[in-house]
Each structure stands twice: as structure tokens, then as C-alpha cells.
Amino acid sequence: MSQFAFLQPEFSPVYDHARRAEGVAFSDPRAACFYARLALETAVKWMYERDKALRTPYDNALSALISEPSFRAVVGRDRVAKARLIKDEGNRAVHDTRAVPPQSAATALRELFHFSYWLVHTYAKGAKPDAALQFSVEALPRTAQVEATTLGRLQEIARRFADQAKAREEAEAACAQTEAQRAEIEAENARLRAEIAAIKLANAAVPDAHDYNEAQTRDAFIDLLLHEAGWPLDQTRDREFPVAGMPNETGEGFVDYVLWGDDGKPLALVEAKRTKRDARIGQQQAKLYADCLQTAYGERPIIFYTNGYDHWIWDDASYPPRSVQGFLKKDELMLLHQRRTTRRSLASVEIDSSIAGRFYQARAIRRIGEAFEKDHQRKALLVMATGSGKTRTVIALIDQLMRANWVKRALFLADRVALVNQAVGAFKTHMPYAAPVNLVTDKQTEGRVFVSTYPTMVGLIDEVQNSVRRFGSGHFDLIVIDEAHRSVYRKYRAIFDYFDSLLVGLTATPRDEIDRDTYSLFELERGVPTDSYDLEEAVADGYLVPPKAVSVPLRFQREGIRYDDLSDEEKEAWDALEWTEDGEIPDSVDASAVNKWLFNADTVDKVLEHVMTHGLKVEEGDRLGKTIIFAKNRDHAQFIAERFDANYPHLKGHFARVIEHKITYAQSLIDDFSNPVKAPHIAISVDMLDTGIDVPEVVNLVFSRSSARRPSFGK
Predict the structure, then answer these.
(1) Closest by CA position to 682, among listed 668, 669, 664
(2) Are 326 and 398 in the same domain?
(3) 482, 386 in Cβ contact below 8 A?
(4) Which of 181, 362, 561, 657 is the residue whose CA sits 20 to 30 A from 57?
(5) pLDDT of residue 560
(6) Are 308 and 426 part of one and the same domain?
(7) Do 136 and 243 belong together in one domain?
């Protein structure tokens, strides 16, 4: 009889995976951890499909689903910790080449049992399991004889599961081609969500008396986080280490965990409190333990205190306590200790003017340095107009921080591959000694500066090598966010919560237009960035020139069409159109209706003719200068390209090209566009070139859509 039998009546897909995991817990622990994770993923995705309280995150990966704030609100932090533990044990099973011990399988199954109990208690229509039901390791099958599952087989199953899920989503999307079909499906989904909401509300009225064994979860989760940071905890003195000098009757105390350096001195200590208590109540006790260890060993350890769910780090020689996602690795802790004596004052380290030589760039670097050093802040926001050299400024900042021994490894994040490639090139030019690594194309290389897109970094956070996370929470000393704005905050804040690092945001958005969420991320007063240099200042100082707006004379697109304003010939054509099935002819069509139909050959032809005739020229007026046309969507961009080729066939399809992320070898197109003498000379963009692209030769921008960002140009 399976211990997960209560799942079978209404959650049979979850039950199937859980039962399979249960059956091989001792004979094949690796497979057991994998199938426990698969059961969890199946349950979580079921929840997202049916519970309207859950908001779909930026990605459908399990780590993103369980990190979504709405999921935490629905499930509760205790069960989120259980989900994370199951996920991490499953990831380890698939990626770690070392043997998986049976205890890991038993732990994953125990936490899956409790999560499954909550799932049924919360969402089931019918009978609920007895609150007294408890998971028993002793009841797990021990006699099953199966061949040990290989890593390759599990990885293939995982790929197949992901492919099937993707195929199912594509099939569902294909079945909803018409508006009527989409409306019908959405109505059915709404009905199901309403039904689930009612069931959930009714179930919530019944008290949940189940014992979720939170103390076991806490201990297992703390141990897992420490193991993932590379701490084996295999020596007696690693746990419950005795110290003398505590202010109590005996003068003795026992430190929950001590993390030792190679020299036998304590690098850090961990004080663990009960799950139902605030972790911060352990701060003073942990501080007293640090005093005792410092007296005994002459070295003050870094302080951690936790309740298994909330974790705090306190390097009381440098910063006040702050929340963290996990524990630091040995080399990261050693670096913190080393910096106590080797870190130089930033004011004493010159800024490399060959990288960033303009006065406002040096001012921005100094102000960030003051925020980090004098104010002991760990976050800064830099507002600089496009074209004023944000990338060079931050490269010079990183260079200074590295030479001052504030930063060993830095991470530069951008939202598109093209910007990652561009940043890597800039780092190679100005900081070749930092061995820049493009994580999008080269995920295994080591260096000091790493450049990545946000989705790539999200995937790498969960990467485990021999049970240790490659990118632990302390891996980077500095993270730079290129084009920091609301969507980055909402989609990828988990990255910034995970890494315990200094944080610098870059944006060209005027400081008064930056949203509240962005200032909140950087813990700044709204409207007051760390430093700013706006377009008006840059123009006044002669570093930038203002854009010159040219309105294409397409009156109908701006004002709409009125029948009475048409010529007699146009009225005749108007009357001949088949407007509606009942033959009714309108007196006018407003501008919004006209602009809904961008696929109008005459409109596009007129815009292209105006650009080719009146756009700024190069080569003594012989050729149109580099130009970006901003299209509404991919189909619109292709339509514009087709109309260009139809009107200018003598240019043989090279002059104007669509550049967007789905194009194969898009980067080679961007490289050609960035070359002053090579085609294409017109880039038709679908959001790919909207922010941060570094092509100084661009002299014309065409906004062939409803809205676009305000442009500025380098002089």
C-alpha cells in the first residue's frame, strides 16, 4: 500500500510519479529523487493552471514557479522550503555524477509527502487524508531489485518530459486559432478556476491539524544549503561546537555550526532557531558565540543566523545584517576575511581615464564609491542618457573596484544576446586582464567578469557540480544591471535576491520617469538616483546632440478619414468599398482605426519614400545613412522589408533587413549593420535594437508604430 495513496483519486499524475519514487527509494536513490521532483513539478503546474491566485512568472521552470511571490503567498514559506528541498535533491540526482545516498531519497520523499498532503487538503473535491497520517521511512520498500538508473537515462527522461510539456502547450495554442475558439477556451478555464477557488475556500474552513514536521525540514534544508556551498559537515566539531565565555551560569555554549578554514580557524558560524520563530532573535546569541570564538582563535568569524527559511549574514566588521538566500563557500568567506586588512580606500585608487575620461563619468564613479565606502550602502543606480557612455563608465568602475580589492568577480546582466555580445567586446577592449566570459555561449569558462542575459543566469543558478552549486550566493562581489527598469524588477528580482553582492543599475530613462519599483530595488528615495547625467545636460555640455524630429506627411494616419474631406474620385472609391454585410457605409474612420491596419502598402511605401528622399545622407549625400525602423511586430517588420524590396529592387535585398531575435545568426546582421560601409544600411527592428545598441553611425530613426522610447545621439 503506497503512502501516497491519498493522491490517486484526484491527482493521479502526481501519484504515479510519487509511487514510482517511493518504490526505488533504497534500490535506486537517484531515480527516487528524480521522480519525487517530477511529482512536485506536476503538482505545481497543476496549481498554476487552475488557481487564479497564482500569477505566471517569467519562465515555466520549476525554480521560477516556486519562487514566484504569489506561490509563496498561497503555499506558505514552510511548504515553499519543502518544495525547494525536493527540487534541489532532484537536480542533484540528474546532474551530480557522485552517488546519491538513500537518505537523500528518504528526505525528498518525506517532504513530498507533506507537500502532497497539503495539496489534497487544499484542492481536493472529495475525501481528505487523515490529519494524523505521517510519512514513515521504515515503510518504504526495501526488497525491490532494479538496475541502477544511469544519469543519461534520467537526463533523457527529463528532456522528454520537458518536450512533451512544450508540445502540449503548442498543441493547445494551435487549437485556439480563432477568436471564438480562444474565447470558448478562456471561458472554460475561467469556470474551472472559479470552481477551484470555491473548493479551496471550503477546504480552508477545515483546520489543518497535520504535523508537517517543520523541525526536520529546517535541519534538512540548512544541511542541504551548507552542502551546496561545499561544506561536508563530516567532522565532529562542525556541529554543536562547545565554546567558553558565554554570559550564563556555566559560561558554556554550543554553536550549531562552525565553518572552519584550512588554517583551523573559524571562518563563520551558523545559529539555527526554531522554524516558528523569527531568525533575528538569534542575532545576539550568534554575536556572543562570535566573541567566544574570536577570543579562542584570534579570528572573528562571519555570523549567520537562520530559522531554516530566513537566513541572515552579519559581517559586523563591515556591514549591518542583511538577508541572504544561503551560505557562502569557503573561498568566499576567506576573501571576506582577507579584505578586512587588504581592501583599499576607493578615494585612493585612481580612475582609469583611458576607459572613462569625461568629467561626468568620473563623477558617477566617485559617487558610487562614496555610497559603497562612506555610506556603507550596497546598491547604486546610475542614470545616464543614451550615448553618454554608460558601459565605459561601469567598466572603469569595475576596474577601480578590482584594483582596490573590493571586487574579485563581477556579473554584467543585459536583456538581449546582442547587448551581451556588445558588452563582452567592450570588456575585452578596456579590461582584457579580467578574462571576460560570455555565459550565453560559453557556460563553463572561468574568468573575473561574466556577462549574461537574465534567463541564462536564472538557469545557471540551479547548476550543481558534484553536489556544489557552481554559482553560490556569494560568487559575485558586484552585479551590474544594464537598462534597469520595471520589467527587470518584476521578472528577475530573484537573481538579485539570490546573490549577495554589491548592485549597480544602469538606465537611460530620465530620473523623474523611473518607476517606484526600480528605486525600491536599489533602496533609494524615489527620484534620487546615486548619480545622473541627462540628455539636456549632455547636449548643453556638447557631448550629445538633440534629435531632429521629422513628421512624415500622412494626414490620414494622424487625423483619420472623413468622407466630406475626400475628393470626388476618392468618394467614388469609398462608396464602392464593401464595408459591412448589411451595406452600411460609414461617414468617417478615426485615426486609431486607420492605424490598427499597419499592413497598408501605400502607407508603408510613402514612409519608405520619405526616408530614402529626406533621411540624412552619408558619403557626400550619395547614400542614406544608417537607419533603424521600429516596427510594431515581426509580421509588420517583414511586410516593411517586402515593400522596400518591391520599391527598390536594384538594391538586391541587401540594403534593408529585418533584425530580431528569431533571425538565425542575428548577431552577424548586427555586426554588418554596425560597420559603416557594409549593408544593411536600414535595420528594421522588432524591439531588438530599442535600447543600448552601440552603433554611432545611426543617423535616422523611424517610428512606424504607436510608441517608442525617446532617442538621443552621440555627437
Answers:
(1) 669
(2) no
(3) no
(4) 181
(5) 61
(6) no
(7) no
